Amino acid sequence: MSEIVDTFIAPPCDEQIEILYQDEHLLLINKPSGLLSLSGKNPLNLDSVHHRLVKIFPGCTLVHRLDFGTSGLMMIARNKAMNAALCQQFSQRSVRKIYSALLCGHLTDNDGMIEAAIAKDAASFPRMTICATHGKPARSHYQVVERTEYVQQDGSVVPVTRVVLTPETGRTHQLRIHCQLLGYPILGCDLYGGLQMSGSATTTRLMLHASELHFVHPVSGEVIHARHASPF
Predict the structure, then answer these.
(1) What is the pLDDT of residues 54-97, one digit of tens each?
(2) Residue among 67, 121, 154, 190 flagged as catalytic
(3) Is 67 a catalytic residue?
(4) Could you tell me the domains of the chain?
């Protein structure tokens, strides 16, 4: 099998990381859209959340990642022990993650569950694919907030549905591919149909924002309810 080559080069990201909370154990940040979570192998993809933060907080590590185009809440561990404790909460699915998104078109149903296994698509890297045979189980819940219109920077108007998305699992590209399967891709999603609707081609970003993180602080035992409003 031929080696998969990642040819993606991230454009410069001028937006700054916003530190929402910090103590001696962990950080909660707001990641801007258009910034990698972790530096890529290509030297041109050095800029990332980790690359920026490790200069300020030596020894810090990522507990989880957000896609390049996704903005919002990320949890950063400040030492190895904290990383292990937080990763355990993720693996046990005791961390509740909630996202805000704009989907192309107006959904018919007000809420529902998408359940479809996800696998790597070696022929179309970096895309993932729905595959019942080789995929890993994945479940996502959606709840409609409003059916409205989104005005692009060029003045064009597209019909969208604002939704709250709650993934029960944490597969790569899960929300993006599940929304495409639903028939309403996330606006601005280049990999899964979010630029195909009439008027959507000029969308400047992926309309997906990690708006809530709920977890237990491993040291204090406090239940943390982190929230950051969607910028769109």
Answers:
(1) 999 999 999 999 999 999 999 999 999 999 999 999 999 999 99
(2) 67
(3) yes
(4) 18-227 (3.30.2350.10)
